[in-house]
Predict the 3D structure of the following.
Amino acid sequence: MRILLVADQSKNTAHLRKGLLENGFAVDLADSRGVAGDPSRRPEYDLCVCDGVPNPAQLQDLRRGRQQAPVVFVSAREPFTDFLSRVRSLLQFGNAQAMDSRQIADLEIDLIRHRATRAGRRLDLTPKEFLLLSLLMRHAGEVLSRTVIADQVWEINFESNTNFVDVHIRRLRSKVDDPFDKKLIHTVRGMGYVLEER
């Protein structure tokens, strides 16, 4: 799941970002003045976290675009574990657009509890592998380029002369596809990867 963290680059911001990343969330940072760039080209966010309270005009800018993500405010005095519980609860119960689980064929992922199963067997995924699988699952049937995958999962600019994404897809396939007859993660030559039942 992708979170927009709106803050002033304080020590608390770094703590929040680190904690969210360690718990398997993709995190984009924006300063309290708003988000630059064309709203239609911004990623879709499942949640907007504000470290502090932006004014209404700033909130309108932050939420403008392709979907209305719920907004949660956090205080520097709030323990991170309490904040994380609030985030998970809001994602699970407070946003009708955010399904807490998704399924394709016999593969199912629980986006809130960060669990994945295939044919009823629990998959032992690292946080990044889960994030990669959840990205593919949220865009099931849609071919994702290596550039998009690198940006959404690792927040890096992808260089075409590396096989960084391919290596991680191979590791994910070893857990999601290799033990099973039916393959769900497919390579689209010259374009990228797609998760779909064939």
Observations:
- Residues 36-41 have pLDDT under 50 and may be disordered.
- The two ends are 26 Å apart (CA to CA).
